[in-house]
C-alpha cells in the first residue's frame, strides 16, 4: 500500500483567506494525485486530477501542484461554500488507490 | 450525463454476506478506459478504496480485503455488483460507487450518492 499523509488534519480560516493543504505519498506516484471535496452527508466531489488539472465546473480559485511525492491543494480566496473536508488520493498503484486521512477546513 | 446509484440492504448481520448493486447511466462499461469502483467511509472517518473493475474485466482489490470481496459487471444491465463476505461491525460504513476515467489520470470523476450499511446483530 502507498501511504498518503495529509497536513494539517484540520484548519481554521476566514472567508477571503488563501489556504494550502499538503499531501505526501509514501513513494513516488508521478502525477497520479487527485483531490476531492466532501461536505457532510454528501458524496466526494472531484476538484483536481493529475495533480494540477482542474475538473470541469470547478472554480478557478482551486489549484493543485506537485510531482513525485509532495503535492499541494491551494484555495486562493476562501468562499463560504468551501468549508468542507478535503481528501487526496493516489491513482498510481493499481492494487490500492489509497486516500489521505482528510483535512477538515473550518470557519474561523 | 453520468449518474450512478447504489442499492442494497441497510442492515446486515455479522458473518452474513453483503451484496450491493451500482446502477449507472450515461456511459458504457464496455468502452475502453472506463471502470467502476467501490469506496466506503465509516462514520466520521476517511474514505477507503475497496475495488474497481475495468471495461475489459480486469479487477483490482484492496489487498487487506481481497479474500472477502468480489466485483462483477453486467454490461447489458449497466450494473456493477459488489459482494463482501463475513461482514463485521467494523464494516459499518457508507458505500459509494464511482466512475473511473483512465484518461483523467485514473480518477473517480463521478460518484453515486452512497448507501449506508450497518452491521449489527
Outline of the structure:
The complex is a heterodimer of chains A (108) and B (121). In chain A, 0% of the residues lie in helices and 47% in strands.
Description:
- The complex is a heterodimer of chains A (108) and B (121).
- In chain A, the strands form two sheets. Chain A has a six-stranded mixed sheet, with no helix packed on it. Chain A has a four-stranded antiparallel sheet with strand order 1-3-8-7, with no helix packed on it.
- Chain A is globular, with a radius of gyration of 13 Å.
- Chain A has strands at 4-7, 10-13, 19-25, 33-38, 45-49, 53-54, 62-67, 70-75, 85-90, 103-107.
- Chain A is mainly β and 108 residues long.
- Chain B has strands spanning 3-7, 11-12, 18-25, 34-41, 48-54, 59-61, 69-74, 79-84, 93-101, 107-111, 115-119.
- The relative contact order of chain B is 0.32.
- The radius of gyration of chain B is 14 Å and the shape is globular.
- In chain B, strand 7 (69-74) and strand 8 form a beta hairpin.
- Chain B is an all-beta fold and 121 residues long.
- In chain B, the strands form two sheets. In chain B, strands 2, 4, 5, 6, 9, 10 and 11 form a seven-stranded mixed sheet that branches.
- Chains A and B meet through strand 4 and strand 5 of A and strand 5 and strand 10 of B.
Topology:
The complex is a heterodimer of chains A (108) and B (121).
Chain A: E1 4-7, E2 10-13, E3 19-25, E4 33-38, E5 45-49, E6 53-54, E7 62-67, E8 70-75, E9 85-90, E10 103-107
Parallel strand pairs in A: 2-10
Antiparallel strand pairs in A: 1-3, 3-8, 4-5, 4-9, 5-6, 7-8, 9-10
Chain B: E1 3-7, E2 11-12, E3 18-25, E4 34-41, E5 48-54, E6 59-61, E7 69-74, E8 79-84, E9 93-101, E10 107-111, E11 115-119
Parallel strand pairs in B: 2-11
Antiparallel strand pairs in B: 1-3, 3-8, 4-5, 4-9, 5-6, 7-8, 9-10, 9-11
Amino acid at each position: 500500500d502507498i501511504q498518503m499523509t495529509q497536513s494539517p488534519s484540520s484548519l481554521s480560516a476566514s472567508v477571503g483567506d488563501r489556504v494550502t493543504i499538503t499531501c505526501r505519498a509514501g513513494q513516488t506516484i508521478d502525477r497520479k494525485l487527485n483531490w476531492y471535496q466532501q461536505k457532510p452527508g454528501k458524496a466526494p466531489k472531484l476538484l483536481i486530477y493529475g495533480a494540477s488539472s482542474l475538473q470541469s465546473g470547478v472554480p478557478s480559485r482551486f489549484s493543485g501542484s506537485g510531482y513525485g511525492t509532495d503535492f499541494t491543494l491551494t484555495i486562493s480566496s476562501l468562499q463560504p461554500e468551501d468549508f468542507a473536508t478535503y481528501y487526496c488520493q493516489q491513482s498510481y498503484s493499481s492494487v490500492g488507490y489509497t486516500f489521505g486521512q482528510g483535512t477538515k477546513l473550518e470557519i474561523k | 450525463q453520468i449518474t450512478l446509484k447504489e442499492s442494497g440492504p441497510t442492515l446486515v448481520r455479522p458473518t452474513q454476506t453483503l451484496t450491493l448493486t451500482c446502477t449507472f447511466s450515461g456511459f458504457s462499461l464496455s468502452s475502453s478506459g472506463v471502470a467502476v469502483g467501490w469506496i466506503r467511509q465509516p462514520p466520521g472517518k476517511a474514505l477507503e478504496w475497496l475495488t474497481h473493475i475495468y471495461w475489459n474485466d480486469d479487477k483490482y482489490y484492496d489487498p487487506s480485503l481481497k479474500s472477502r470481496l468480489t466485483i462483477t459487471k453486467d454490461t447489458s444491465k449497466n450494473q456493477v455488483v459488489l459482494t463482501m463476505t463475513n461482514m463485521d461491525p467494523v464494516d459499518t460504513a457508507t458505500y459509494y460507487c464511482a466512475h473511473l476515467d483512465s484518461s483523467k489520470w485514473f480518477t473517480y470523476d463521478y460518484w453515486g450518492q452512497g448507501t449506508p450499511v450497518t452491521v449489527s446483530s
